[in-house]
Amino acid sequence: MPTPPPWRRAQGDDGPDAAETVRTPRPAPQRSPAVDSLLSEAPTAYIDRGGSSGADGAAAAAGAAAAAGTGTATLPGGSQAEVHAEVPNVAGRAPRQALLQVKRFDPWSVLKLALVLAVVLFFIWLVAVGVLYGVLDGMGVWDRLNGTYADLVSGGGEGGGGSLISAGSVFGFAAIIGAINSLLFAVALTVGAFVYNVSADLVGGIEVTLSERD
Length: 214
Prior knowledge:
- The chain is α+β, with helices and mostly antiparallel strands.
- Helices cover 50% and strands 14% of the residues.
- The strands form two sheets. Strands 1-3-2 form a three-stranded antiparallel β-sheet, covered by helices on one side.
- The chain is elongated, with a radius of gyration of 41 Å.
């Protein structure tokens, strides 16, 4: 009788040319601590089977436990399995924290953000100057200053020296000052980003601790 090939041999068949098959156990897969932490916080399902077994029934019962928490699952064959899901109590543990480091600011993104902020601050400056000018004008401050200036320039004569302060001059001067300050603000932030990047490469960046809510 010819010896069947190895893939057709039944367990216990020892033919004349039969050779022992040595199976090398597979090493257990290594899991990272982060995976172990997630698995430890996952819900655990316990199945009380009433006489029937099967991988599909166990999977169905586990799915029912994860969805409903507890209940009864129907296994293949019509039998019932009581399922209990236990969720670990994570309310009592301390909030998790993560220590991060701000390593680098992109100068181009800092410049764009600085220009937007500079424009917003420019309009806020003009509005503030307009409000202040209106308040002082309502109090008569500009009229007294303009009258005093006209008296000094004319030297007591009939001719007037004109107005020292007017709305146009005030807003024009405020617009020039605001534009210069806005430009300097954007340039200063961009240069500051370059300086921070160099300093972070030398001594490390700013460390920030992020934590979950209590």
